[in-house]
Every structure is written in C-alpha cells, then in structure tokens.
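hey m, so remember when u said the tokens were messed up on ur end? i reran from scratch. heres the input so u can diff it against urs
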Amino acid sequence: MTLSSHLDELKKKHESLSAMVEDAQRSPGYDDLQITELKKQKLRLKEEIHRLSGH
C-alpha cells in the first residue's frame, strides 16, 4: 500500500467517523461516553493523517 492510498483510506475513515458522531449527537438514545470515544478515534485519525502528510 502506498502512502497516498493509506492517507486516502485514513481520510475515508475520518469522514465516516465524522458522520457517526453527527448522527450520534442527533440521536437522544446515544450515550455521551460512546460519542466521546468516537471523537477520540476521529482525533487519533486526524493526528495520524497530519503526521503522515508531513505537516
């Protein structure tokens, strides 16, 4: 897997997590701890994308 394709895959996962967080925040039945965990996963992906991009 090339760096470019790996970055693309990470970006797709980040977008997917973003959508999951938005959906969870709109859903009254979702636990705040679950939302927090999704946000942490999203942040880890963002940091990894940033690190691999060389910024």
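this time it looks ok to me. The chain has two helices and no strands. if urs says something different then somethings off w ur setup not the seq
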